[in-house]
């Protein structure tokens, strides 16, 4: 009998998953040490999309860097814009108008919905349920249409700017958001019907990639993935930025810390985001959508052609930018993936001396080994999807 | 607890317990920064993690900063957060070129990747790191891209015709 066992003992081997693999969500390269079908060690090899964003930032004016942040987590560009402009505003000690804060909240939460929808859609696709991806894309389209109405772009938005937002949140936009709020709840119920009780979905996700809260904190996990492990930490609640303290919303948490909980938490977060948007839309005051400081927010373009002062301000803004006081700040937001932080070291000039982006995808990916050790190869697909890494952000 | 009290604890707790190791303390925009001696880094980190008033259980980020041409050239910046106490703190150590810093991976395992990133981008060596190798750049890459003397467009080679000529 022992002889027979020896025969079927498989030897260890290394399996390379990615960087060109459809279910790695971009260019993740996983080096898996396998014993048969079981994973002994999973080592991510990242950097295929490294573009030197931080180096670029050191060579750009503060306002010129906003479009680069769109290319970090390109699934939810508003959140990146928000993290960056908030860091610069903190550095300058700038207070933005009330209306701009409401617009930012709505923009960021719409972005969260779009990001989570794609996460769930792609995740289901990887596990064989293609319908959900098509549904998620359909819903995401509604969000992207609103973004297009808002700023003319659909993916790389650059809508937020230092000192406020770039364009007015018009009545048409408001109506579109209201339509979205009416339309989505019924659609989400459909998702629920298809996924939440689905036997295949449950089997592939329940008990897979379990991580305890303690371990997760130690490994630097944040965002919905950490909350699924039962740690109630949401920066919107714990260190409220903008006006999140004025809204009534819950922070969903999971109990088991497995892939299924991460799905449930994300799904619940979409519904909470809808609640926040509803309240923000209702309470939004009138007023300016950006600060009245021509050196930071240049005058509207038609004025530049007619008014000498406006022309000078515009020229100064484009050619010299604005200076920030000497010092250093770290500012972070709760992005759809987790804690997205921006650390700026300023030497008092118009360019940052050093800009460090604390990318949630990067930190979250560290946990892959702990989650997939001892599991089967097929589980890695669910685990990667449940972390929702975006490589624009992870590789910077 | 008011923000002032919080800042008070964050400043005083460290200054009282590590009188000789804190080089300076800065409070800017409500953020507390301690610059500490490199040798005391691990002791301070352990204290921050275990002290009942501080409970810094979450290492948010490790960042390198190049202050060239001033000396010592680099700073390693640790951003810490306490999930239970909801406060943040920044620690900094100064590092000269070619010097090492003790790794904090033994205290927070999450320090693994960000320390590798600082090594990759600045060439700062983290002593005691279990797997210190480049993370973004290829293993055979020469130079450390985020250093101030590294050209923005890189060095010229067969793949990069727009780079700067190497001396």
Question: Can you lay out the helices and strands and say which pair or pack?
Answer:
The complex is a heterodimer of chains A (396) and B (167).
Chain A: H1 2-8, E1 12-17, E2 29-35, E3 38-45, H2 53-58, H3 66-70, H4 77-92, H5 98-126, H6 130-151, E4 160-161, E5 164-165, H7 171-196, H8 199-205, H9 213-218, H10 224-228, H11 235-238, H12 259-283, H13 301-306, H14 308-320, E6 327-335, E7 338-346, E8 354-358, H15 360-365, H16 368-372, H17 377-387, H18 391-394
Antiparallel strand pairs in A: 1-2, 2-3, 4-5, 6-7, 7-8
Helix pairs in contact in A: 4-5, 5-6, 5-12, 5-17, 6-7, 7-12, 12-17
Chain B: H1 3-17, E1 22-28, E2 31-36, H2 41-50, E3 58-66, E4 74-82, E5 87-95, E6 100-102, H3 112-122, E7 125-127
Parallel strand pairs in B: 2-5, 6-7
Antiparallel strand pairs in B: 1-2, 3-4, 4-5
Number of helices of chain B: 3
Strand segment count of chain B: 7
Q: Can you give the mean pLDDT of chain A?
A: 89
On the 0-100 scale, what is the average pLDDT of chain B? 87
Strand content of chain B: 25-35%
> What would CATH call the class of chain A?
Mainly Alpha
Helix content of chain A: 40-55%
Category from helices, strands and their pairing of chain B: alpha/beta
| Residue fraction in strands of chain A | 5-15%
List the secondary-structure elements of chain B in sequence, H or E.
HEEHEEEEHE
User: What is the molecular shape of chain B?
Assistant: elongated
Compute the gyration radius of chain B: what is it? 18 Å
Strand order of the largest sheet of chain B: 1-2-5-4-3
CATH third-level topology of chain A: Cytochrome-c3 Hydrogenase, chain B
Helix content of chain B: 10-25%
N-to-C span of chain A: 54 Å
Largest sheet of chain A: 3 strands, antiparallel
Rg of chain A computed from alpha carbons, rounded to a whole number of angstroms? 23 Å
Structural class of chain A: alpha+beta
